[in-house]
Write a structure and sequence with these properties.
Largest sheet: 10 strands, mixed
Helix content: 25-40%
CATH topology of the largest domain: D-Maltodextrin-Binding Protein, domain 2
Shape: globular
Radius of gyration: 19 Å
Order of helices and strands: HEEHEHEHEEHEHEHEEEHEHHH
CATH superfamily of the largest domain: Periplasmic binding protein-like II
CATH class of the largest domain: Alpha Beta
Length: 281
């Protein structure tokens, strides 16, 4: 799993990787979700070691920005932690773009607090009321008498969209919330603030945070795969039409047993039981 500094940087920097670059090298551009970034970086590094001559650039910015880049033809692959919207599909059609979804991993969105916070579980309704600004003190949900600092992802984030779908159900986030641009920034903010609450994908959980149960259910690989955990979702890579050449081979690698082992290594939920899949070979 990435350390906190490296993950925070992923939300802000463009990462470029090359291996045995030649004039005839095929290049792939990947943009979008900061949640999917660790999966993308881990798999592309492994893929390029096995495929000298491939050039891949990777950057974040959020799921919305990734899909926008796909529609603007400025990226080959759009990383997204949400499904593409109907209006985005309609806009794509006007531009001659045919978005194709590739599920590359599963995820669980987990509410996080500072390790010193005594709260261990919140219901979806309590989370919604906190994010609407209706619950403002931790003592209202079994915690200490401390004001709640609400931290959220920004509106271009697929994680924000998923949180809206699962928790807010179109209710407005309080204007007092701090809106941050990357999952790494969220992790850093909560780790430093004992009053804070936020949410991140399962791959960003580390010892500087305290993950909360939701409706009494702990997020894990098992509960995310079974969808027992109520905030489970798919993670996507979108392409314009069916991918060809090295792009097709790279996405196939991500979905392969070897690629899914990297998904697990980065702390996310694989598409398959990689231990069983490995034994079958």
């Amino acid at each position: 799993m990435f350390n906190i500094v490296k993950k925070a940087a992923l939300g802000l920097l463009v990462l470029c990787f090359t291996a045995g670059v030649s004039l005839a090298a095929e290049s792939i551009v990947i943009k979008g979700s900061t949640t999917v970034l660790p999966v993308a970086q881990g798999t592309l590094e492994a893929y390029m070691k096995a495929n000298p001559g491939v050039q891949i650039s990777l950057s974040g910015g959020g799921s919305g920005e990734g899909i926008k880049a796909l529609l603007d033809k400025t990226t080959d692959i759009a990383n997204s932690s949400r499904e593409i919207k109907k209006e985005e599909i309609a806009l794509a059609e006007t531009k001659g773009i045919k978005p194709v979804a590739h599920v590359v991993a599963y995820d669980a969105i987990i509410p996080i607090v500072h390790p010193k916070n005594k709260v261990t579980n919140l219901s979806i309704d309590q989370l919604s009321q906190i994010y609407q600004g209706k619950i403002t003190n931790w003592k209202e949900v079994g915690g200490d008498d401390l004001k709640i600092v609400v931290i959220s992802r920004d509106s271009s984030s697929g994680t924000f969209e998923s949180w809206d779908h699962f928790v807010m159900k179109k209710a407005k986030v309080t204007p007092r919330a701090q809106m941050l641009a990357s999952s790494g920034a969220v992790v850093t903010a909560v780790a430093k603030n004992k009053y804070a609450i936020a949410y991140v994908g399962i791959g960003y959980i580390n010892k500087s945070l305290k993950p909360l149960q939701v409706n009494g259910i702990k997020a894990s690989v098992q509960t995310a795969m079974s969808k027992e955990y109520p905030l489970s979702r798919e993670l996507y890579m979108y392409t314009n039409g069916e991918p060809q050449g090295q792009m097709a081979k790279y996405i196939a690698f991500v979905k392969s047993t070897e690629g899914q082992k990297i998904v697990v290594k980065e702390g996310f939920v694989p598409l398959m039981d990689v231990k069983k899949a490995g034994k079958k070979k």
